[in-house]
Task: inverse folding
């Protein structure tokens, strides 16, 4: 790594390692002081034991000397009883002194072992510091972790007692272990970066998606699970999920974490339904206030790790994609369209929210291809954008050639099918069923660009910004009421 990328001056990492080195030296000195006290105490106890052992031997010789008096009544008892009592007392005292001496000797051995352990830990800490030094400035969360470890170590250094060696050892071990994990992660990322991608077999079609990494659109709380399965964490990724599966790995363990385009069990080919005729502007971000929309989209961003649910990427890869994007990913609303008896001539339909997808601007452009190509036309790159969008649609659906054309034609047919519908009911039952909406109070914009009336919103309780409150209503009930007025409405529309 170039020298200019090395960490300049003292950093939180340097401070943490300086503190742990000082703390280990202090702890080692405390252990040395304890060892001197233990040795002095052990020598005293050994001398005490030797003296008591001598007393016991003298008492034992006296008892043996007068054993011949035992058969003589009264005299034997009178002479031997005091001698045996003295022998018992001396034996008990000697045994107690020996136990105390052995206990001190064990403590001495434990102290020596602790001192050797701290010395080995100090060596590991210096090696970890040396390994961290050339890595450059770490990501913010690594810096915060080192800062927290340094603060914890500083609090231990302020303790005046000689206890808590285990706390010292644990704090130092945590610092070293975290440093080693960071170094290992960086080395793994560098190794994956220089590893050539696997050769593409002759039967495999090209892809518009990254060929070396498959980013996992997962929330932060699933990060450790993915790493345990073999995914790689790129600590330099500063926005969103930093976990990816290197190309060429077995993807089966990650099936439920993968972007949809990489899953083996895709189900039916993904569709790109256009917005129905006369439904432009009827969406969450246009009809509800900014706080409501931010709550919805940012919650979904967090749940997908701020990565595209289809490809795992971020940011646009083509001209025209993401012309109106406000960040690395967008929130895309997926709608379905239905009419009574599938008859658009009745004039009333239900626009039902099916899901909210987090997409990168490139995948989002697949749902708004016309807009993206028009945006690219300003740079005279519309043909390039159209070709790229078609290739990305092929990657997402798994279809090519005529099969892809037929699939896109069926999606476009939805627009023709809904042309006769003059009024749509917005069914937001899916949104109301989400746990993140339990404590939310959506605010509807009474004056919205689409001119959509709050009375035609179903499936959700909400307030309008003009002070009115609307409780949840069923879409079928609103539809039935509008169908009763359909003849009058059609007459008014025809006159208009």
Result:
């Amino acid at each position: 790594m170039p020298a200019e990328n090395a960490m300049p001056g003292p950093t939180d990492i340097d401070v943490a390692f300086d503190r742990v080195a000082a703390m280990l030296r202090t702890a080692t000195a405390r252990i040395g002081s304890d060892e001197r006290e233990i040795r002095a105490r052990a020598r005293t106890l050994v001398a005490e034991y030797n003296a008591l052992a001598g007393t016991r031997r003298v008492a034992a010789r006296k008892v043996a000397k007068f054993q011949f008096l035992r058969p003589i009544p009264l005299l034997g008892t009178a002479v031997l009883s005091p001698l045996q009592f003295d022998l018992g007392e001396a034996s008990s005292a000697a045994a107690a002194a020996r136990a105390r001496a052995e206990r001190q000797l064990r403590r001495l051995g434990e102290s020596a072992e602790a001192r050797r352990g701290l010395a080995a830990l100090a060596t590991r800490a210096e090696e970890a510091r040396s390994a961290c030094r050339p890595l450059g400035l770490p990501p913010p969360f690594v810096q915060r972790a080192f800062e927290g470890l340094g603060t914890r170590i500083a609090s231990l250094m302020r303790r005046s007692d000689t206890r808590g060696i285990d706390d010292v050892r644990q704090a130092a071990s945590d610092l070293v272990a975290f440093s080693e994990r960071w170094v290992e992660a960086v080395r793994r990322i560098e190794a994956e970066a220089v590893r050539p991608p696997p050769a593409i077999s002759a039967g495999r079609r090209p892809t518009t998606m990254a060929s070396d990494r498959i980013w996992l659109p997962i929330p932060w709380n699933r990060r450790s699970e993915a790493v345990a399965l073999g995914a790689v964490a790129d600590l330099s990724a500063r926005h969103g999920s930093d976990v990816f599966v290197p190309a060429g790995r077995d993807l089966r363990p990650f099936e439920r974490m993968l972007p949809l385009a990489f899953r083996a069990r895709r189900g039916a080919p993904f569709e790109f339904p256009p917005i129905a005729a006369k439904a432009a502007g009827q969406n969450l971000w246009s009809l509800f206030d900014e706080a409501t929309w931010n709550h919805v989209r940012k919650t979904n961003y967090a749940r997908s790790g701020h990565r595209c649910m289809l490809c795992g990427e971020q940011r646009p890869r083509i001209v025209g994609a993401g012309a109106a994007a406000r960040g690395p990913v967008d929130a895309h609303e997926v709608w379905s369209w239905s009419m009574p008896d599938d008859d658009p001539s009745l004039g009333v339909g239900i626009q039902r929210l099916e899901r909210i997808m987090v997409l990168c601007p490139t995948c989002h452009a697949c749902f708004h291809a016309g807009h993206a190509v028009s945006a690219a036309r300003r740079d005279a790159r519309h043909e390039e954008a159209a070709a790229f969008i078609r290739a990305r649609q092929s990657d997402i659906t798994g279809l090519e050639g005529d099969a892809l054309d037929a699939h896109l034609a069926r999606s476009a047919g939805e627009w023709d099918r809904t042309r006769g519908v003059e009024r749509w009911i917005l069914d937001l039952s899916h949104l109301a069923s989400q746990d993140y909406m339990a404590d939310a109070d959506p605010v509807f914009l009474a004056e919205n660009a689409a001119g959509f009336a709050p009375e035609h919103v179903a499936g959700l309780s909400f307030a309008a910004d003009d002070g009115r409150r609307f409780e949840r209503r069923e879409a079928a009930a609103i539809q039935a009421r509008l169908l009763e007025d359909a003849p009058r409405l059609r007459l008014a529309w025809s006159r208009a």
User: Anything to note?
Assistant: The chain has a mean pLDDT of 78. The first helix runs from residue 12 to 65. The beta strands are 213-215, 232-233, 243-246, 330-338, 348-359, 423-427, 443-444, 457-458, 462-464, 469-470. Residues 99 and 234 are 57 Å apart (CA to CA).
